[in-house]
């Protein structure tokens, strides 16, 4: 089946093979996140569009016998021309290229598993000269307060919902995937705890929230009853006139809403995305505690070294240090 799918450029079958390999033989197996699956699928579609362009009678690069040099050329094209899908026609950043390459490598491991090809070796994504803390900064506290104030309308159920989700990311350190996968039963209001059952790698953790955030979550739960479809367990549901109204909100919709709020508030372009809010939480956790172990526990990092990045992200702390120079003069 794998050989036939490659010879016929059967995108759907090749993606099915990739998923089967990841679930049965991948490092994380069934614990692989839906977000990673979607990213890998996009990478495979992009690679096929490069190796066998639409409308071409045959492949420009033979899929089953591609070499490391071929993948190096693919990576170079991503750097210069960008992705090969209509929605990706722009040069990709090193981090995105690394993700695409990981997806293509996974495809070739799947083909090798199926006995259809040998995975190319010695292919590396370009390194990014920009330090990680500069690539993905935390949102300054002043701008975060503007965002929270912008969403402060107790009469608007959608804003109450969005504000609660933003605060979970920026004050409790949840990932966007963790927020949207929360169920009503995961909120232990009397104990001010949130149980995250779908953490990265399938790990579960329990995090405390502030009294004010617990109150906002309870307020949303009260409003939610008017919007949730019968039997829906999701904590955060769609409130608009969409076909999935009353059902679990999607990550893509939440990202679009955040982007709209950032534009409305005139935030600088470097402050964007949902993950920035988690970085905001990590930076604040470290600034308040000075303890990487506490920061790691709250964010769900298996290795405390992963949390060390938040010490470098603390621009507010650096600004305070610089301001103290003037006080000494």
SSE order in H/E notation?
A: HHHHHHHHHEEEHHHHHHH
CATH class of the largest domain: Mainly Alpha
* Count, helices: 16
Arithmetic mean pLDDT: 86
Helix content: 40-55%
Radius of gyration, CA atoms, in whole angstroms? 22 Å
Question: How many domain modules?
Answer: 2
The beta-strand count equals 3
Distance between the termini: 75 Å
Give a verbal description of the structure.
The protein is 55% helix and 3% strand. The chain is built from 16 helices and 3 strands. Helix 8 packs antiparallel against helix 10 (211-224), helix 8 (157-171) crosses helix 12 (275-289) and helix 12 (275-289) packs antiparallel against helix 13 (292-299). The protein has 2 domains: 2-129; 135-325, Intergrase catalytic core (hpI Integrase, Chain A, Orthogonal Bundle). It starts with a helix and ends with a helix. It is mainly alpha-helical and 329 residues long.
């Amino acid at each position: 089946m794998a050989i036939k799918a490659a010879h016929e450029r059967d995108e759907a079958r090749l993606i099915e093979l990739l998923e089967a390999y990841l679930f049965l033989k991948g490092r994380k197996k069934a614990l692989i996140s839906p977000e990673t699956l979607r990213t890998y699928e996009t990478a495979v579609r992009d690679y096929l569009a490069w190796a066998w362009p639409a409308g071409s009678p045959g492949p420009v690069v033979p899929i089953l016998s591609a070499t490391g040099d071929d993948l190096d050329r693919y990576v170079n094209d991503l750097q210069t021309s960008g992705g090969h899908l209509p929605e990706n026609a722009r040069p990709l950043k090193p981090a995105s290229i690394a993700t695409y390459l990981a997806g293509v490598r996974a495809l070739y491991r799947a083909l090798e598993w199926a006995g259809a090809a040998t995975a190319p070796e010695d292919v590396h994504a370009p390194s990014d000269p920009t330090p990680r803390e500069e690539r993905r900064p935390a949102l300054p506290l002043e701008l975060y307060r503007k965002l929270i104030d912008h969403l402060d309308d107790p009469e608007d159920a959608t804003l109450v919902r969005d504000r609660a989700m933003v605060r979970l990311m920026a004050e409790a350190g949840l990932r966007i995937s963790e927020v949207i996968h929360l169920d009503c039963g995961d909120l232990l209001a009397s104990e001010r705890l949130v149980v995250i059952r779908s953490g990265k790698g399938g790990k579960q953790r329990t995090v405390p929230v502030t009294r004010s955030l617990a109150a906002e979550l309870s307020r949303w739960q009260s409003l939610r009853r008017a919007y949730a479809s019968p039997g829906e367990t999701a904590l955060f549901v769609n409130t608009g006139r969409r076909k999935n109204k009353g059902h679990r909100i999607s990550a893509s919709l939440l990202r679009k809403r955040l982007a709209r709020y950032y534009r409305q508030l005139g935030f600088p372009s470097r402050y964007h995305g949902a993950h920035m809010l988690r970085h905001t939480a990590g930076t604040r956790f470290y600034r308040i505690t000075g303890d990487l172990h506490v920061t790691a526990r709250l964010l769900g990092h298996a290795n405390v070294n992963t949390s060390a990045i938040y010490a470098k992200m603390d621009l507010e702390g650096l600004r305070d240090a610089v301001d103290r120079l003037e006080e000494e003069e």
